[in-house]
Every structure is written in C-alpha cells, then in structure tokens.
Amino acid sequence: MKTSLRSELSGLVFYMGKWVLLALAVAALAGSASAFFLFSLEWATATRGAHRWLILLLPLAGFAVGWLYLRFGREVEAGNNLLIDEIHDPKKVVPLRMVPLVLGGTIVSHLFGASVGREGTAVQMGGALADQLTHVLKLKHEDRRIILMAGISAGFASVFGTPLAGAIFGLEVLAIGRLRYDAIMPCLIAAIAADQIGLWWGVHHTHYVIASVPALSVWGIAGMVIAGAVFGLTGRGFAAATHALGGWMKRRIIYAPLRPLLGGCVVAAAAWWLVADRYIGLGIPVIVEAFQQPLAPYDFAAKMAFTVASLGSGFKGGEVTPLFYIGATLGNALAPLLHMPFSLLAGVGFVAVFAGAANTPIASTLMAMELFGAEAGLYAAIACVVSYLFSGHNGIYRAQRTSAGKHQPAPSGTE
C-alpha cells in the first residue's frame, strides 16, 4: 500500500514538474508575442486615426495580404480552425509561418480600416509557437494536444488580460458539451503566466466599469433570460452571415486575393462616404461609451455589417472583439426596454454574444467576473447560458465539434 502511494505521488510530482515547465515555456512565447502584437495594434490604430486617407487603400492592402496567404500561407489559412483540428486529429506540426503571416495580416487590416478583432491572431500565434516545442522535445500525440490547448489559453489570456477565462477557453472551445480536464493544469498555468508576462512587457488592458449592479430580483432574472435569448440569436446570426459570405465569395471568386480586394472596396467606401469610422478597427472607444451613456440603437447592426464584410471577404484578425462591440452596444440598446442599467446590460452583452457565437458560456462568465467584478457574475452567467442555448450547434469556429446536444440529441454526423 505504501509502495503504491509512493509510486503515485512520485508520478504526480513528475507530471506536475513536466507541465509546469512546458506551460511556462508556452507562456513566455505566447505572452511576449501578444505584447508585441498589442503594441503594434496601438500603433496601427493611432496611425489610421491620424491619416484617415489610409482607409482608401484598404482594397490594395487586402489584395496584398490575400496574395501572401495564397503564395506562402495555404497550409495555415484555416487559422483557429487548423489548431482545433490538430487537437482533435493530430497530423503534423503547425508551420511556424502562421505567426508572421497572421501577425502582419492583422496589423495591415487594422492599419487600413478593416473591421476585425485580435483574439484570432493571439490564439494562432500562441498555438503555433507552442507547437514548435513538439519538434524540439519530440512530444507524443497526447502531449501535443495538451500543449496546443495551453497555447490557445495563453494567447487568449494575454491578449485580453483574463487568465481564468483564457484557461477555460482552451478547454471549452474544442467541442460543445465537453471539457478536456486532462489539460486543465497546463492551460491554467500557461494562461496566468502569459498574462503576467504581457503585463511585465508593459501591456495595459482597457478598464470597463459597470456603475451599479442591482440586487438580484425576479425581474432581473427574467430580464437576463430575455436579453440572453437576443444575444444568442445575434451571435448565431453573426456566425451564419460570416460563413455564408465567405462561402459565397469562395464559390464566385476563384482567385483568392480578389476577395479581400472586393470586400475592401465595400468596407472602405462605406466607412469613407458615410463617415463610419466608429464601425471599423477594434472599436474600443465605442465599447467604453456603451458603459457610460445611451448610444444609437443601430450601432450593433452597423458593426456587425462591417465585420461580416471584412471577415467574410478574407481579412485577417479575429471575431471576438467585434462580438464584444456588438454585444455591448446591443445591451446598451436593450437596457431601457428591460428597465435595467446601461452599464450592466452593456457588460452582460459584451460577454453573452461571444458566449453564444463561440459556444463558450463558462469562459465567458469567468471573463465577465474578471473584467467587471464578481457582483456581475450571476447576471452574466444567466445571460451567457441562455445565449449559448439559443445560438444553435454552429458557431464562429467551424472545426468545433458537438460532443453533446444543448437541449436535444447532438446533430447527426457530429462527434
């Protein structure tokens, strides 16, 4: 008995030591890459603001990025979906070229005015950099799965400053209805350390404030259920529209670089002639406004249109920050209808639309608590879970599998 216990404890110590070291290595790579990326985004956004005419060059920028991916990046064009596929069915190490391609492509997208996010870039860099350790350390398939998940967690945590949400995101995003607990310690360590490394490099994350959180009441719960349903349907519509436009353009336009060129023409013309600069780029200032004052009720729809056009035509970046924008402004618009504080509905919408579109209600709830405080956690949890239920079995990540149905048996053909 004593021998068995000693053997178990020694195995556990070896396991923990091994994954602490590996997770810290992943965190150093992902956290540093995210810090450089965030500083580059600040430069790109400030430069575009100072030289608005750059928006007119968006079509040419889109063509250039499209050509680079056609020439050098066909193996990594799937982005986040490639990482998820490699975790489910390991085949070959993710090419390192994914890092400079997605980094450069995203900075170019923001510099010239596409409406894209940043999570996709950070996650892809984190995953691709982590996977290079597979070569160096000759990792087995099962270890490679875990290190890829740790890279995803580290990238997500360091770009948003939300280590708990990042840790769970790496476990939750892979399949609807299943968490991979065998990777929970590496993902947690990688997420926490990557966030701290980003802060060490001097990264500053936006601070969002929910002015007041009312005591939980029957109407408060009912309001969150109603809002959660709207947020879930919005996330579902966003994912469907983005996939539909992307599929249509691939069928109609064979030469890939022409897709972002055409999409860039549409986005640039709309942004320039309608003076719609608030709907391009990350849109962080507008998200902050949604917590402070009433906004135009159509802001969420306009941002959705610009983002669908940008991502659907092939611009690089991510979906999550635009989803934060859409959710915060939609929540702002719903607040007077539901007789609830603007800042509370903006915060809840911020995370709940993402929860529905990405099928990650637990990570989204933890994100709300990390960004807005624990007091908002109950409201966010209700809205995120309802949003998740209303968003269907498809989301922004096509490679995400369905392990268990949300409210009925899983659709046929899924895992």
Polypeptide structure, described:
The chain has 415 residues and is mainly alpha-helical. It has two domains: 8-201, Clc chloride channel (Orthogonal Bundle), CATH 1.10.3080; 218-402, Clc chloride channel, CATH 1.10.3080.10. Helices cover 70% and strands 1% of the residues. The chain is built from 16 helices and two strands. The protein has helices at 2-50, 58-72, 80-88, 98-112, 119-137, 141-160, 163-172, 184-201, 218-252, 258-273, 284-290, 299-312, 320-338, 342-358, 361-372, 377-390; strands at residues 175-176, 401-402. The protein has a two-stranded parallel ribbon. It is globular, with a radius of gyration of 21 Å. The two termini are 40 Å apart.
The fraction of residues in strands falls at under 5%
Structural class: mainly alpha
Order of helices and strands: HHHHHHHEHHHHHHHHHE
Shape: globular
Largest sheet: 2 strands, parallel
The number of helical elements comes to 16
The CATH topology of the largest domain is Clc chloride channel
| DSSP helix fraction | 55-70%
Distance between the termini: 40 Å
CATH architecture of the largest domain: Orthogonal Bundle
How many separate structural domains?
2
Provide the CATH top-level class of the largest domain: Mainly Alpha
Rg is: 21 Å
How do the strands line up in the largest sheet? Answer: 1-2
Assign the CATH superfamily of the largest domain: Clc chloride channel
Tell me the total number of β-strands. Answer: 2
Main location: membrane
Pfam families: Voltage_CLC (PF00654)
Subcellular location: Membrane
InterPro entries: Cl-channel_core (IPR014743), ClC (IPR001807), ClC-type_chloride_channel (IPR050368)
